[in-house]
Amino acid sequence: MDDKVSIRIEGLVVGYDAAPVLAGVTLDVAGGEFVGIVGPNGSGKTTLLRSVARVLTPASGAVLIDGKDVSEIPARELARQLGVVPQDTVPAFDFTALEIVLMGRSPHLGRFQLEGAKDMAIAERAMRQTGTLGIAGRPFAALSGGERQRVVIARALAQEPRVVLLDEPTSHLDISYQFEILNLIRRLNREEGITVLAVLHDLNLAAQYCDRLVMLGGRQIQAVGSPAAVLTAENVKRVYGAEVWIRRHPTSGRPYVIAGIGRPVSEEEGRRFDRRPKVHVICGGGTGAPIFAKLLRRGCEVTAGALNIGDTDQEAADALGVPYVSVPPFTPISDDAAEENARLAAEADIVVVSDAPYGAWNLPNLRAAVSAADSGARLVILRPDTIRQRDFTGAVATDIIDALAPRTAAASTLDEVAALVETSTST
Question: How far apart are CA 72 and CA 276, in angstroms?
């Protein structure tokens, strides 16, 4: 759109006491840009955002919104331009969620004017976008932290602003809502040209969603640029004091931070992470399909073990483009198929054994897992504690799973499988 609004921060000096939190910060945010502010606790991220929102008055320097000094912009006009999502919001009265969102329409109403049908429609759209329409009538004070956060984001969207300022907008949200909210913000940024300046605690979320990053530390900007330019091991070590790996995400190509390593990454380990992790899934009877889907979404290269034609997992593998070992319908796994299965397992970074039922016809699949473990492969077994309920081999399958237990990682959910795969293939 042609009404994109820019932000310019010039020589900003601001603090709460005598010592400034930020000293001489200068930054330009182009209209329609999505810029993330990162840095350790106490580095001034929220202070910078509050200065832009005119909550704090700087000791010196200026903040310009579309070329105008915020100190000179009337409050109502500024509220039409800026939508602010703070870390925490505690209402003075027990408003409903809908009433909180309708407060976002105040800058567009005259004095003593009540909301009309248009304002209600805009508020409902904002609540629908943030998944809060179903709690519209509930008291705001009775909502969970995540629900409150989404309502406050809906209020900001109801303002129909040209600039959105977000202070750790995902801090109270479950992981699914983190992605949903940031996807929503990015879509509004891309499609409607809204300028976004967001404080983000999670470096990986910042890397995936932002056009540029600003890294604060020591009262000043320590790095600014693309996520790849800012999120380097050297910058994180210098500003955060933490030893991390910075690798390229296998699907987005953006930087990905792996913390808690305590040592630099070797070239061999780096190459291993930079390519798509290979995962071989031993499955059957429909137990593999959700594993395929989840791992493919995570950017893994997936293969499957021996599958009978007509098996649900065979059909899913075909639909998703997952290579597998083909076995005729209603036929036991042949020696050739078992050998091919073992080969694929040996080529993988990690082998996942699903919670499939086992009989004499598909027991060679399980033995392929044993061969892989014997060769030093990393194994993840889904729900090994339920093997006795799905063992139709006279306890042979149970004995194999029990024997594998000391050498494998156990998972009880698909999310745990994905987490174990990511951990195992990045170290």
Answer: 52
Helix (H, G, I), strand (E, B) or coil at 339: helix
Instruction: Quote the DSSP letter at residue 60.
Output: E
Domains of the chain: 7-241 (3.40.50.300), 276-425 (3.40.50.720)
Closest C-alpha to 306, from 321, 320, 285: 285
The DSSP line for 139-197 is: BGGGS-HHHHHHHHHHHHHHT--SEEEEESTTTTS-HHHHHHHHHHHHHHHHHH--EEE
- CA 196 vs CA 6, 34, 87, 99, 187: distances in Å: 10, 5, 16, 25, 11
SS3 213: strand
The amino acid present at 245, given as its one-letter code, is: W
Whether the model pTM is above 0.85: no
Phi, psi torsion values for 26, nearest 5 degrees: -125, 130
Helices (H), strands (E): how many in the chain?
A: 16, 19
- Angle, CA 327 vertex, CA 407 and CA 357 arms, to 5°: 45
What residue has token string 């889907």?
A: 293
> From residue 341, how far is each of 337, 338, 372 by CA, in Å?
6, 5, 10
CB atoms within 10 A of CB 312: 15
34 membership: H or E segment, kind and range: strand 34-38
pLDDT in tens, the chain (427 residues): 458 899 999 999 998 876 789 999 999 999 999 999 999 998 999 999 999 999 998 999 999 999 999 999 998 889 888 988 887 766 657 899 999 999 988 888 877 777 889 999 999 999 998 889 999 999 998 888 778 888 988 999 999 999 999 999 887 777 777 888 888 889 889 988 999 999 999 999 999 999 999 999 999 999 999 999 999 989 999 999 888 878 777 667 788 887 655 555 555 555 555 557 889 999 998 999 999 988 887 778 899 999 999 998 999 899 888 999 999 998 999 999 999 999 999 889 899 999 999 998 899 999 999 988 888 889 999 999 999 999 999 999 999 999 999 989 999 998 899 888 877 665 5
For residue 356, which of 422, 277, 289 has the smallest C-alpha distance? 289
Cα separation, 393 vs 427, in Å, equals 36
Pairing relation of β-strands 212-217 and 34-38? parallel
First to last CA, the chain: 45
Separation between Cα atoms, residue 164 and residue 408, nearest integer Å: 47
